[in-house]
């Protein structure tokens, strides 16, 4: 501290693919921890700290070890054992088993999609409602068409 009390700290970071450091704290921090945001998933970063007292600012600290920006959870694996039951002319009921791997986070719902067999455009069946259970009635189907269905689980890591 050079004989004068430290007033606070600034945090700087750099993407390891660049040599340029950016100050990420616009204001002086009085604590000794900081939560950095706006990191790009998959990029590596280093951090360093500059302290300040009434005389001025210090030289930056040595850089931290490299940190890989990554969500603390992954996308869940796919549900299994998809079954189609209660088939009528305009609807059917789908049921499935939850994924074996939740990606480290709770499953918040399922995305159900269908398409006419032989086409490429998937249509979301539950666009207006969140499906939490492992069963869903798909309505609005057309008679005399063959359909394909798929179900994906979702958590904070994304849609599996």
TrEMBL record:
Please provide, in alphabetical order, the Gene Ontology terms of the cellular component aspect for this entry: sarcomere
One Pfam family name is fn3
Per the record, where are the segments of Polar residues compositional bias?
55-67
Q: Which domain of life is it from?
A: Eukaryota
Tell whether Lipid biosynthesis is among the UniProt keywords.
no
Q: Region (Disordered) spans which residues?
A: 55-79
Keyword Metal-binding present in the record's keywords: the answer is: no
Q: Alphabetically list the UniProt keywords.
A: Immunoglobulin domain
Q: Where is the Fibronectin type-III domain?
A: 1-72, 78-160
Which protein, by its recorded name, is this?
Fibronectin type-III domain-containing protein
């Amino acid at each position: 501290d050079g004989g004068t009390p430290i007033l606070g700290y600034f945090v700087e970071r750099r993407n390891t693919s660049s040599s340029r450091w950016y100050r990420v704290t616009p204001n002086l921090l009085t604590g000794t921890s900081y939560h950095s945001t706006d990191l790009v998933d998959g990029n590596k970063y280093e951090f360093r700290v500059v302290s300040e007292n009434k005389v001025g600012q210090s030289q930056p600290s040595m850089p931290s070890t490299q940190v890989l920006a990554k969500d603390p959870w992954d996308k869940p694996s796919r549900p299994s054992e998809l079954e189609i039951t209660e088939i009528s002319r305009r609807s059917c009921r789908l049921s499935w088993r939850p994924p074996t791997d939740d990606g480290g986070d709770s499953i918040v719902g399922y995305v159900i999609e269908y398409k006419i067999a032989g086409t490429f455009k998937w249509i979301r069946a539950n666009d207006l409602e969140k499906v939490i259970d492992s069963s869903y009635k798909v309505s609005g189907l057309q008679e005399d068409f063959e359909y394909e269905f798929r179900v994906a689980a979702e958590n904070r890591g994304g849609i599996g």
